[in-house]
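Justification of computing resources. Each target in the renewal requires a structure prediction run like the one illustrated here; the chain below, 121 residues long, is used simply to show the kind of job we budget for.
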Amino acid sequence: MSERRVTVTSPRTGAARRRPSPGTREIDEQTRLGEVYMSALVRSQLRLSLFVCTLLALLVGGLPLLLLLVPPVREARFLGLPLPWLLLAGAVYPVFAGIGWWYVRQAERNERDFAELVERK
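Resulting structure tokens:
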């Protein structure tokens, strides 16, 4: 026994569709202008990611260097625990989380600015 096929359609077939802006059309059709738009977005996101990676490298590389070059910090104790342990095992992670939160906000801002630019054109 074969099952009967049913075609499902929307009752709003006559609804007005949003027309794409000229900027999004340029991107969809992969024109030279669309490539310029996309490369601008990619460049801004790359610049942001390189900044964050550099910041994290300085933090991760600078903390052990600080501990090596400044003996009072290396020998300090806080609440009976060595300060280097507290810095390397505990304090670094909230900083990582904060930088990650900031990075996501900035990346979303870049995308929002890009969308506004493309919609205006």
